[in-house]
Write a structure and sequence with these properties.
By secondary structure, this protein is of the alpha+beta class. It contains eight helices and ten strands. Helix content is 36%, strand content 16%. The strands form two sheets. A five-stranded mixed beta sheet has the order 2-1-10-5-6. Strands 3, 4, 7, 8 and 9 form a five-stranded antiparallel beta sheet that branches. A hairpin with a 7-residue loop joins strand 1 and strand 2. It starts with 5 loop residues before the first helix and ends in a 19-residue tail after the last strand.
Length: 319
C-alpha cells in the first residue's frame, strides 16, 4: 500500500504554516496578559438577575424614601401641635398673671415669689457672715446715682429724729452725737440693682452701737439688750428729711456689724449728692436700701414702707 506524503496531500496548508512567522516570547506573554485581563462575558441569566436585583433595589429605596417622608410629615405635624400648645399655654399663663390683683405695684403671684426668697434668705442669715472687704488699691472713684430726697437743703439745719424707743420719747440728735460713737472703717462693694457696682471706703458708726445707745423698744417691754435681738422690735424704717425717699430694714440686717451710719466716703466727708451729712451703708443689701441723707430713724414692729418696694421691687433686696 502506498503511503501518502503529507506534504502532497495539503500543499497549501503546509505552505501557510511554513510561511507564518514565529511568535516571540514577549508577544506571547502580552497576548496572555490581555486574555486574562478581558472579563468573561456574562450569561444572559446572570444579566437578567442583575437587572432584576437593580430594579428591586430601586423599589426598596423608593419605599424607604416614602416611609421617611411620611414620618417627617407626622413629626412636623406633632411638633407644630406641641408648639401651638406651648405658645397658647405661655400666653394664657402670662395673661392670667398680668390680670391678677397687685400688691405694691406687682401682681400678687410675683410678690409671693419674692416673699419666699426673703424667707429663705432670712433663715440663712448669720451676723457672723460678712460681706467681702477689699484692699485700698481696689477703691473706685465715687459714683453718684439717684437724687430722690436730695433736694436743696441747708446742712446746718440737719438733725436726726429717732422714734420707737423704749423711753417712748423722740430724740433729736446732732452729728456730734453720732461721731461720739466708736468710729469704724471698711472697704466694701456697693451693688446697684441696675447691674453695676463700686468699691468704696466708708467711715462712720455701727448701727448696732447707735441702737445700743438710744435704746429701741422691745417686744415685751423689758429693757433693750442688743445682745438679745430676738426681743427687739422686728424692723427699722429710715427716711430723708423731706420724707421723699424711705426704706425699711429687718432688724437682723440693721444690727449686722457691717451696717454703718456713715459720714465719710473715700477718706473725705460726704458730699451732698452722696448723702451728706449722714447716710446708711450696708453691703448686705442693694444700693436702693442704702438711704442717703437720713432724717428719721424709726424702730417698729410692723414692716415699714419702702420706696422701691411700692414700685414693684423686692422689699428685702438682699444679695
Amino acid at each position: 500500500m502506498n503511503t501518502a506524503n503529507p506534504e502532497e496531500l495539503a500543499p497549501e496548508q503546509n505552505a501557510e504554516t511554513l510561511a507564518a512567522p514565529p511568535i516571540s516570547e514577549e508577544l506571547s506573554e502580552e497576548l496572555c496578559d490581555q486574555a486574562s485581563a478581558e472579563p468573561i462575558s456574562e450569561s444572559r441569566d446572570e444579566k437578567y438577575a442583575q437587572k432584576t436585583a437593580s430594579f428591586s433595589g430601586d423599589e426598596s429605596n423608593a419605599a424607604n424614601d416614602a416611609n421617611a417622608e411620611t414620618q417627617m410629615r407626622r413629626m412636623s405635624r406633632r411638633s407644630f401641635l406641641w408648639s401651638a400648645v406651648a405658645i397658647s399655654g405661655t400666653f394664657g399663663g402670662w395673661k392670667w398673671l398680668s390680670t391678677r390683683r397687685e400688691e405694691d405695684a406687682l401682681a400678687w403671684p410675683f410678690r409671693r415669689v419674692l416673699q419666699v426668697n426673703e424667707n429663705i434668705a432670712r433663715d440663712l442669715f448669720s451676723p457672723n457672715r460678712l460681706a467681702p472687704t477689699f484692699a485700698r488699691s481696689k477703691i473706685n472713684p465715687i459714683r453718684t446715682n439717684g437724687d430722690v430726697g436730695l433736694g436743696k437743703f441747708d446742712l446746718n439745719d440737719w438733725q436726726l429724729n429717732v422714734e420707737g424707743l423704749a423711753s417712748g420719747e423722740t430724740l433729736q440728735l446732732a452729728m456730734k452725737d453720732i461721731k461720739s460713737l466708736p468710729r469704724v472703717e471698711m472697704i466694701t462693694e456697693l451693688k446697684c440693682i441696675e447691674g453695676w457696682s463700686v468699691i468704696n471706703h466708708w467711715a462712720g458708726a455701727r448701727f448696732s452701737d447707735f441702737a445700743g445707745k438710744v435704746g429701741p423698744a422691745t417686744r415685751d417691754g423689758a429693757a433693750p439688750n442688743i445682745r438679745n435681738p430676738e426681743n427687739l422690735l422686728e424692723y427699722v424704717g429710715l427716711e430723708t428729711p423731706d420724707g421723699a425717699y424711705y426704706v425699711g430694714l429687718d432688724m437682723a440686717t440693721a444690727l449686722h456689724p457691717q451696717t454703718l451710719l456713715c459720714y465719710e466716703m473715700n477718706g473725705k466727708p460726704l458730699l451732698p449728692e452722696n448723702g451728706a451729712p449722714l447716710r446708711l451703708v450696708t453691703p448686705l443689701k442693694y444700693g436702693i436700701k442704702n438711704l442717703k441723707r437720713i432724717g428719721t430713724i424709726r424702730f417698729a414692729n410692723s414692716r415699714p414702707a419702702d420706696y422701691w418696694a411700692e414700685r414693684g421691687y423686692d422689699w428685702y433686696a438682699g444679695h
